[in-house]
Amino acid sequence: MFEEIDVNEPIGLDDYESEDHLSADVAALRAEAAGLAPRLAGRTVWMVNSTSQGGGVAEMMPKLVSLLGEVGVRCRWGVIRSDRAAFFALTKRIHNMLHGQEGGSLDAQDRALFECVNRRNGNDLRGMLAPGDIVVIHDPQPLALGAFLKAEHGVITIFRSHIGLERETPSTEAAWAFLKPYAAVVFTADAYAPSFLASRAVTIRPSIDPWSHKNRDLTPHKLMGVLCNAGLQRAAQPMVTPPFDHQAMRMGNAEGHPSVDAIEDIGLLYRPIVTQVSRWDRLKGFHPLLLAFVRLKERRMRGAILPGDRHARRIELLRLVLAGPDPSSIQDDPDAQDVLHSLTTSYAKLSPELRRDIAIISLPMQSRKENALIVNAIQRCSTLIVQNSIEEGFGLTATEAMWKRGTVLGTRAYGLCCQIRDGMDGLLTKNPEDPEEIANHLDMLLSDGARRELMGNAAQRRVHAESLVFSQVAAWLRLFTRCIHS
């Protein structure tokens, strides 16, 4: 059931400090930790969530746990497990309701299932705990586990919600009413806290590791090696490194099976590319983005390209990449396969010309390192990076793209508004379900390379100032010390 995840992060604070543009961030963290970490001596902090791979929470955990350990806090990471598919169907429904989506009522039978799975995982974890330890519960799936451990074993528990909606709706109220018996108080944004928690809510922004495999700089040789090893580009010359054991797969028909088209035909190194990388989730807005791309292409097809019209030529050559994790690998997201199937069904109805210009890619998850490098390489090959979320708790895929100086087209989903200043760090679509508006924004950004460069530079500065892992570690240290003295 409950499983502890080993953390082996080879890069530490000394490494970051050797980089001029990160040294001040590391120095600030060390100075704050010197006063706070000794107050936590003798305690263990447990980070608990529902999956070790896929999604922003799982990606943040290894570096967060590692850096807390390096500044003097004993920290461990574990995930809950269950063989009851109904449990993850229930928690996905709660997830969607917290985003304002219709989810029906939550009844006593749902509560019994929720508590049963959490109780079994809590029983596994309790033997590893001592009184006074701190258990941080990430998102709703393990929430009852924290409440049980707090009541029965004298540990301090913190509920950290990465998701939410900036307004109350009947669906959010129903979800929070269900979670209220277990809830505590850390949110990605102040506006996500329900009214009964608002007076004691704490805000900690998610963050990225600038040197992770997903965010580090890639030399031209390394970039080409990743694309070829992943099966995304044909190798024209001998390669030093062998192909990855598990390749990216281009999904090409309504059944979601790999296409007969060669995946290297995407043209990542040669063509203008629009990319979205996200979980296969209805709230990520994949389908409206697909329709917007089709609309943009069809506009060009209706007109002739005049000699010297570089923008028209750019649109002619433009390709769309929609990428997400292999849905079979993500235990806590049972809707992913249906979303991917729906997307490939729409794709299969397009003309052959349009299908050639769209790649729906399932990314392998067997190796975290290889998956991260693939995402990194795809984003660095992209002219525009889109996060067309209908609702978004934060959206680390946008943060990662901004760190790479990518031009990001986001939406007015609250988590993206927290990061992207419209017209400065990127552009925001008002209605992510309106293909015409999305197409107009794509057209505008693709036509103006100077504006894209300015936005990309501003975006990286914004991430450096507000969303690097060092500031998140310091925020957790402050919260832990406050909790033990409250």
How do the helices and strands line up, and which of them pair or pack?
Blueprint: E1 3-4, H1 13-17, H2 20-36, E2 44-49, H3 56-70, E3 74-79, H4 85-98, H5 108-126, E4 134-138, H6 143-153, E5 156-161, H7 170-179, E6 186-187, E7 202-203, H8 220-229, E8 249-251, E9 273-277, H9 286-301, H10 310-317, E10 319-325, H11 336-348, H12 352-356, E11 358-363, H13 368-380, E12 384-386, H14 396-403, E13 408-411, H15 414-417, E14 427-429, H16 435-446, H17 449-466, H18 469-484
Parallel strand pairs: 2-3, 2-4, 4-5, 5-6, 6-7, 9-10, 9-12, 10-11, 12-13, 13-14
Antiparallel strand pairs: 1-3, 8-11
Helix pairs in contact: 2-18, 3-18, 4-5, 4-7, 5-6, 8-13, 9-16
Question: What do these coordinates show?
Answer:
With 486 residues, the chain is α/β, with parallel strands linked by helices. 44% of the residues lie in helices and 12% in strands. The protein contains 18 helices and 14 strands. It has helices at 13-17, 20-36, 56-70, 85-98, 108-126, 143-153, 170-179, 220-229, 286-301, 310-317, 336-348, 352-356, 368-380, 396-403, 414-417, 435-446, 449-466, 469-484, and strands spanning 3-4, 44-49, 74-79, 134-138, 156-161, 186-187, 202-203, 249-251, 273-277, 319-325, 358-363, 384-386, 408-411, 427-429. The chain has a 7-stranded mixed beta sheet. β12, α14 and β13 form a beta-alpha-beta unit. α2 packs parallel to α18 and α4 crosses α7.
